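tool_call predict_complex ligand=magnesium ion
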Amino acid sequence: MAIKLLDDRLINKIAAGEVIERPASIVKELVENAIDAGSTKINVYISGGGIDSIEISDNGSGIPYEEVALAFKRHATSKITQEADLFNIDTMGFRGEALPSIASVSRLELYTQYGTQNGVRALLEGGQKPDIEPYPTAPGTKIIVRDVFFNTPARKKFLKSAVSEGIHIHDIISRLALSRPDISFTFANEKKLYFKTPGSGELRDTVISIYGQDYARNFLDLEWSGEDYTLQGLISKPEFPRVNRKNQTFFVNHRWVKSPMLSRAVDEAYRGRLLSREYPAVFLFLSIPKAEVDVNVHPQKAEVRFRDEKVIFRMISHGIRDRMDNSAHPTAATEETGSEFQSWSNQTGNLDFLRGFSKTSGNYMTNSAISFDRTGLTNEIPPYKALDKIDLIMEDSGFAIIGQCFDSYILVEKADGLWLVDQHAAHERILYSRLAEKNSDAESNSQVLMFPLAFDISSERMDLLEEKRAIFREIGFEIEALGPNSAIIRSAPPQLQGREIEVIGECLELLEDERPIDLEKEISAMIACKQAIKAGQNLSRQEMAMLINDLLQVKDYKNCPHGRPTMIEINRLDLDKRFKRK
Ligand code: ADP
Ligand code: MG
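tool_result ok
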């Protein structure tokens, strides 16, 4: 075949394949244009999951009459003019690709009115030349996009149900609204109003409009500024943990970004404040000089590159940590005025330790009424007949249980030092190791349920469940769809008894995270975490002895399945040194 240049319509259609993946991409592009046009109000209405129609109106600058035709040409943009501008971008768009791409795969109407000019209307169908005429309309711009992919049936086939496409749009418009608390966003789906943000400039107001007051209550305000950088946002209180990182939203210079590095910095800030498998929720805004960051790595991916990752990492982990430390301080925070001891304990951590110790001194050595049955441990561990012998065995092996403090940590004396064992992490490690052993020799860890369990599920998750069905089967779940929004569990791993639906939900949540996971390991860790004794549970001496004894049998006993330490060791020599005995 002879080589030929492609015509514009075909070029646009090909480009649309990259820019416009699904209706949510259209919403993103059009809302970003509205933001770039300086709007203070943006309304988004969709129907049929955005496949049938998307209507976006703004009160921004509008487009001059004479430029309307140009706006639909490829690489036509008002946002940059020269190469140097590329390194100093402060608009959301600049490639001049969105309008021609969207117009090439839909039926589009545009209404706009600029300055003192008269209004204008443009009609386009499948990327044909626009039909433009004067038309009275409100200041700003309104774009209606209908029948997405009507002329590219192959692409249309890849769309999910209207419900899932609607969920994607909801996600995108929520993030855009969060990214600009100074703009009032309205979002309605099938004529139902989902949210309207006030545009007050306060992030908290935006979060309340989208997620509700009850959710917003769980967050502390964060404000930190250095010479060139500022960090600002909302961070969840440690007592409000989430099961995955889906609730961590990052914005760099008001643009939503995805960044594993930023998540790690947040993890670091919360280290020691959350249990394993617990994650904080954050809405974090980072402002950094444009030269320090590249947010345009790829137009459709929200990737970001920092010139100096270490500085950013430190700023976030320290900024958040400081804020949480201050919130525990009665003079610095409005919330949680604690006991009279609190102000001391902030000055010296050691006092904190003593305070807890004396508080529980009445019972940390006494036998508790709580038996291991309640923790589910007896299901997993062969019953110890001669419990009282355990203490002896322990002492023979050079370990002696001193007691429990804060109902959470077990103190163990050894010849060369002291252990502070986190009872939850330790028990988790023991259960996890046992499960791993079991899984490796059993050919299948699945049991048919006497009463199959039906449950409701969103269509988005239903799709995911279908997609991952083979993996679920491998780990022992037999699940079938009952309808578009319900499914039924027929078989499940026996250790999950009573928690099957909950665990499926958590697995799906993990899978939604888009990071590679080993589901089998995750499930074992989940089972272990659920069955493990919690912090805050008083233990008898024998229970403690059993736990420590079991822990010592396990490989890697110094870390829990998620890598957190199960214990802190205090070396005897160090102790002597600190007391200036040496
Ligand atoms: P880009 O945003 O990369 O410049 P687009 O194809 O999205 O490219 O838009 C082309 C041009 O159309 C923009 O540069 C802008 O001048 C104009 N435009 C698009 N949408 C709007 C709007 N809502 N308000 C004002 N101008 C707009
Ligand atoms: Mg644009």
